[in-house]
Design a protein that fits this description.
two-stranded antiparallel sheet; 502 residues; 4 strands; 2% strand
């Protein structure tokens, strides 16, 4: 909302001045605000920007009539942007509890070896999805969840189909998410079967499973189609989300001089004033270096990289073996290897920059408050955009690496790259298929050329190219006398084929 366009707004934007109180807190300048006290100026300013942005142009919040009038007067393009449907935050959708009653028993079954065999995180996601489905099927918000209600919901194919349509249209979820909800409903059906059910209920569940299985197949096909359409290299490049390896190689040199300046000031004694923003930049640069020069791994790998892990790498030829991350269930090990340059750079960061952040944990990358450095992918995207003006996050970078490998490396080297990245990219697979189909079409055309008669090929080529001037003359004649002699022209070009037309 552009508050400056509303009637009665200030001519110039108000400067927000926050002063520290006696108890070292900051108070929101808006009267009757529910959250008025903050422990930092930055937190108070963010609160005003998010909750009371109108305060920069008004002393009191404008009436709803003035706000609606300003929205109606916006250009059509702005209205479309404001009205465009965004993906909903499904974590706030109503659902039954998974910490007590039937929800708790279902969670225990999901985590059991002979049940779902899931980790706690996976079970929580699965259970929450199912409880959202049961809440959707409930007519009374205060109704308790019972086994009869569960059997009624999962035994009704109509409710299941309506719910999947609802989360797609109203919640804005894609085919992959809808597939996940169907899988969660399949798991709760198995849970109820394990409890022992009557013949009538089992008959209803058999009907539901037919619809669920067919829905999964339809969503799987739709998901592949969406990936091929929205995650192709051409679409990503058009959206400024794709870069070449040559462009990515310029990102680290672009920020290197600034990092060296920050590092020199951190080394100086007595310590030259180094701002918190510069220390944050240094941490972001190290994370960028790790992604682009060490290994294009998943953000969680570097987020949980500890000092002890890094120190052990010096005793094992630079290798760091990690087994407690997201890929541990699919890959037993996810190893990093630090060469001499990367080891030296990180050592200097640990000795000269990290202590100034007052670390409160053992993780290698920390924030200005000393806690674990998170959202690493977003920070990498910012630095890449500053360097080359394109939006590239870690996942996209791995896709760029793997796609580029198909053009430069051999098949065995491509396989090594794919295994090392721990990455199975639909983007890369689509690119491979497209490239392979073009190669097959080209080689097939050359092979067919060997089978065809050279004499006929030359005759057809001569007839086609020599007919260009004849066609233009015929068009002029047709406009002059209104006669259609297209058949005669074709007969002249290929007389053996059109003898019967005479």
């Amino acid at each position: 909302m552009d508050w400056s366009k509303i009637e009665g707004a200030r001519q110039h934007k108000r400067v927000l001045i926050l002063r520290e109180s006696k108890d070292k807190t900051y108070v929101c300048p808006v009267k009757h605000c529910e959250n008025r006290t903050f422990f930092s100026k930055r937190g108070c300013r963010k609160h005003v920007d998010k909750k009371h942005r109108w305060y920069y142009y008004f002393d009191e919040k404008p009436s709803e009539r003035l706000i609606d009038q300003a929205i109606r007067q916006q250009p059509t393009q702005d209205k479309f942007k404001n009205s465009s449907r965004k993906r909903a935050d499904t974590s706030k959708m109503p659902h039954y509890s998974i910490t007590d009653g039937i929800g708790k028993r279902y969670m225990e079954w999901l985590c059991a070896i002979c049940g779902g065999g899931m980790s706690e995180v996976q079970a929580t996601q699965n259970g929450t999805r199912v409880m959202k489905f049961f809440k959707y099927c409930s007519e009374d918000d205060e109704e308790e969840l019972t086994t009869e209600h569960i059997d009624y919901c999962i035994g009704s194919a109509g409710l299941i189909c309506n719910f999947i349509e609802h989360i797609g249209k109203e919640w804005g979820l894609g085919s992959s998410a809808q597939f996940g909800y169907l899988q969660a409903i399949t798991d709760v059906i198995d849970f109820r079967k394990s409890c022992g059910l009557s013949t009538a209920v089992l008959g209803n569940l058999a009907i539901s499973e037919v619809y669920i299985n067919r829905g999964k197949r339809a969503l799987a096909r739709r998901k592949i189609t969406e990936w091929a359409k929205n995650l192709s290299v051409e679409v990503l490049a058009a959206n400024n989300q794709w870069a070449t390896m040559d462009e990515m190689e310029t990102v680290v040199p672009h920020h290197l001089q600034r990092y060296k300046d920050v590092l020199l000031r951190c080394k100086s004694y007595p310590l030259t004033s180094v701002s918190a923003a510069e220390l944050t930049f240094a941490t972001r640069f190290v994370s960028l270096y790790l992604f682009t020069r060490v290994k294009g791994s998943r953000p969680m790998t570097y987020q949980y990289l500890t000092l002890s892990m890094f120190e052990k790498s010096k005793e094992s030829d630079g290798f760091v073996d990690q087994t407690e991350f997201k890929t541990a269930q699919q890959y037993t090990f996810d190893s990093l290897i630090f060469d001499e340059t990367s080891t030296r750079l990180i050592d200097e960061y640990i000795v000269n920059i990290r202590p100034l952040l007052n670390p409160k944990c053992d993780y290698l990358l920390v924030t200005r408050s000393g806690t674990q450095f998170k959202a690493i992918g977003n920070h990498m995207s910012e630095l890449v955009f500053q360097a080359i003006g394109k939006y590239v996050h870690p996942t996209r970078y791995r896709q760029i690496v793997e796609t580029e490998s198909s053009r430069v490396l051999s098949t065995e080297e491509q396989r090594s790259i794919s295994l090392d990245q721990k990455h199975s990219s639909q983007v890369a697979r689509t690119y491979y298929q497209k490239r392979s189909s073009r190669e097959v079409a080209t080689s097939g055309k050359l092979a067919m050329k060997k089978l065809r008669s050279t004499k006929v090929e030359k005759m057809v080529k001569r007839a086609v190219f020599s007919s260009e001037s004849a066609v233009s003359d015929n068009e002029k004649n047709k406009k002059a006398d209104g006669e259609d002699d297209s058949v005669e022209t074709v007969v002249e070009m290929f007389p053996p084929l059109f003898i019967s037309l005479r």
